[in-house]
# Entry
Amino acid sequence: MLEELIMAELLCTRLCHDLTGPIGAVNNGAEFLSEEGFNLQGQAVELITSSAFSAVTRLQFYRMSYGKVRDHGEASLEEKQKLAIDFFSDTKIKLDWPDNHTDAVNVSISLKMSRLIFNLLIVAASVLVRGGTIAVRIAQDDQGKKIVSFNAQGTGLKWDEEIDVIFTGKLTTAQLTPKNVQTYLTKRFIDDLGAEFTYTLNGDELQMKILQTASN
# Structure
């Protein structure tokens, strides 16, 4: 129980930090409009509109990433794809998630797996400190097992050795911080799903793959 409380506190800290920028920009734009004699209303409205869009897309993305999902049920990949594309639209990262790797691929993805996909997108984005591309591909093998792969490419890709510690299950609760709690939670989601997770790092390229071996 204490571990879950610590995780919740650290995730709240992380979320508040990530949302401060766009919400603060909305507030700044509103203050500009209220100033007497301010003659750049168009720019202020544009700032408010773009920042509000960023705040809303982040909230929706994080709700999918961290919110509670049903133990059973299939996810709409088309809907998840749109949320992810909107999330990365105002960042230095381009999301390559083609339509033929959503519901059109005829592979059903559980709600828990879709939540894991979002969390692995966050992990991939965290190493692309200078921007880059994240490619998402979804398939199914001859045994009916679901395969979700991620390919992150970008100059100066930064892989923290602590990520290895987390994915090998060696990080303790006492070592959790707002910076690493999301990756730790991702590892918990992988374990809960009963999935096989592999990753390789080669220069400016990170490859991650999830093989769903359970029925979740």
In short: The CA atoms of residues 151 and 207 lie 5 Å apart.
